Amino acid sequence: MKTVFASKLEPLLGAVAEQMELYVPQKSGDYYVFRRYDRSADVPVELNNIRTCTPVKEFLFPLRETAAVYPKPIESEQVKPFAVFGLKQCDLRSMAILDKVFKEEEFKDPSYVERREKMFIIASDCSEPGESCFCNILDGKAYASSGFDLNVSKVRDGFIVEAGSDKGDDFIEKHSQLFSEAPEALLTEREQDRAKTQQQLEKNNAELQFDTPLKEIFESGQDSDVFDVEAKTCIECQACTRICPTCHCFYLYDTARGDYFAKMKMWDSCMRMAYAEVAGGANPNKILGDRLKHRLFHKFVYFLDRYGLEMCVGCGRCVDADAGGIDIRQMFKKLNEELQSKDKAEVTK
Amino acid sequence: MNENPYQPVNAEIVDITDESPTIKSFVVVPEKPFKFETGQFVELTLPGEGEAPFTPSSSPAETDKMEITIMKAGRITTLLHDCKSGQKVGLRGPFGNGYPVDDFAGKEVYIVGGGVGLAPIRSLFLTLVDRIKDFKAVVCRYGARTPEDFICKDALFGPWQKIGGVDIKLTVDEANGNWKDNVGVVTTILDPKDVDAGSAVAVVCGPPIMMKFATLKLLEHGFGADRIYLSMEKNMSCGIGKCGHCMIGKYYVCKDGPVFTYEQVKGYPKIWD
Q1: Most exposed: A187, A326, B70, B229, by fewest CB within 10 Å?
Q2: Domain boundary, last residue among B48, B71, B94
Q3: Across the interface, do B247 and A294 touch by the CB < 8 Å criterion?
Q4: Closest CA to A137 of A194, A56, A206
Q5: Are residues B107 and B227 both part of a single domain?
């Protein structure tokens, strides 16, 4: 795979935008969100130093979409190729998690698969992890080594651009006039910057380095009251699940549209009261604390049991978004403390 | 399986039978043959209104039509109860696993059912009866609220009881004038002498509370947790293990169930709620 140098970002993005719709990060208040790139608008593109506020799942699994039309099926509109610039390693890992669910061998979700295939991924290094970022606790890094078509790293005087796929390699080859050989000194600089950010992450999250794997911490907390206690300030806004890049629950509903009907797919949230309720009224998660517990057990126990990886990338979006002030990291700590004191009690016995 | 798992197969309701004051059976004819295994479920769509999961009550041997027995319980089932013959509907599926009928061969099959739970069990019963010689015995213990609340009354009160190799006992919570059988919940007719708990397989289907106490009774009789098959009712929606509503621990009831052994699910919280 090719690794090259580009002195400017705009020509690279311009070349992408000539081929397909391009989404780029834009500052909105304190956070970055994605906007459609418009060359003529003359708004300079910033390289986001941290993940965007909104999750990448929006591009692959939209808030609402038509899942089927009946009684006569219609060919769904073809998804046009599109590119997203500024995705961080946590975003790429969240896509790998969604792939497990929506690209599963037995039942593939057709629209997810199509969008995923049409997406051109331009990742970039994370240089300023936020206060809520804890990706390193879940084996995350401040930069990506795979899962992208192109990766951009800011260095002195320009950018190191690395291909991570054949699509990325082809792009560099096709637009060779935009790039020059990557000087060794700049590659070293990139490595140094990456190591520095990684160290920063380790330092920020030193308190979250537990001796026991998170799965075991949760499993030992099956009967803990931590969930009920934490849920006391929850206002059931569901922001945590909507903004989470890995939460993927959805709700199917039917609607009439003139002379035909549509089956719609819309984001849902396991924090919603009636989420698991059946027609007869039974509901295993009537209590808010139980819903919070299910959400976290899904992330750190059940998904891992099923797919071999946690359903959390440590991006901290849920921490930033939570109007009730619930902080997933505090629950890790409390459950770990409970486990430690349980272990100690065992030893004393 | 359809390429788009969300796409329903067009179908039509051709016949409706009143089973009890709150239960009706609908004969549904799909546009193309629709195969399922007994115990699997389908999502029945009422166009423009929504869909709900049901385990067909007919024998899987019939692929040109299917019977679905529905209790009026929520919004969609109430709307379905108001439907007339000729109503267009949609079918998605079949989803999940069925009863492992082949694994039951050579064994006593102990079927414990309650209320509308007798619908999926009817499909299983017909499948077992089709090859009755393969099983040591089929022993059924069914309960309903009142005698009127049984489904398939004509067959249940007569012909089914006369099939060789089949032993059926019934009970009701509240009797009326003509009732001569047992009165009490279904666990009151579970006798340790019914089957050999050390080798038989049990199938339990009914309201959650009934399933809970029947399972506890079977364990008490000496059934292994891995030989108690439960037809779990959760909020199955997508049918393909993605939307999340029907999770029991790591399992999606829609994809990994709806039939589970008690052994599989006993460690998870609130399975009966």
Answers
A1: A187
A2: B94
A3: yes
A4: A206
A5: yes
Total-model pTM: 0.94
* Cβ contact, residue pair B88, A71, below 8 Å: yes
Rg of chain B over all Cα atoms, to the nearest angstrom: 18
In a domain, B265, yes or no: no
Chain-chain contact of B243 with A252 (C-beta, under 8 angstroms) = yes
CA triple B72-B74-B80, angle to 5 deg = 55
C-alpha–C-alpha distance, residues A342 and A334, integer Å: 12
Of A249, A254, A294, the CB nearest to B47: A254
Nearest CA in chain B to A297: B249
Q: Does B121 share its domain with B225?
A: yes
User: Do A68 and B6 lie within an 8 Å CB cutoff?
Assistant: yes
Give the N- to C-terminal CA distance of chain B in Å, as an integer: 32
Write out the residue range of the structural domain in which residue B122 sits.
Answer: 101-231
Give me chain B's average pLDDT, please: 95
User: Based on the structure, what is the number of domains in chain B?
Assistant: 2
Determine contact, residues B104/B135, Cβ cutoff 8 Å: yes
Alpha carbon distance B226, B264 (integer Å): 8
Predicted confidence band of residue B51 (pLDDT cuts 50, 70, 90): very high
CATH number at residue B66: 2.40.30.10
Q: Closest Cα partner for A130 from A327, A343, A315, A344?
A: A315
**Neighbouring C-beta atoms of residue B239, cutoff 10 Å:** 26
Shared domain for B76 and B193, answered yes or no, is no
Q: Is 80 exceeded by the pLDDT of residue B89? A: yes
Place of tokens 């089949």: B166
B148 neighbors B21 (Cβ within 8 angstroms): yes
> Which residues in chain B (200-219) have CB-CB distances under 8 A to chain A?
207-208
ipTM surpassing 0.95, yes or no?
Answer: no
Query: A123-141, pLDDT tens digit by residue?
Result: 999 999 999 999 999 999 9
Q: How far apart are CA A98 and CA A95, in angstroms?
A: 5
Provide, as residue numbers in chain B, all residues whose Cβ is less than 8 Å from the Cβ of A275: 235, 245
pLDDT in tens, A68-122: 999 998 877 789 999 999 999 999 999 999 999 999 988 999 999 999 999 999 9
**E strand or H helix at A195:** helix A184-204
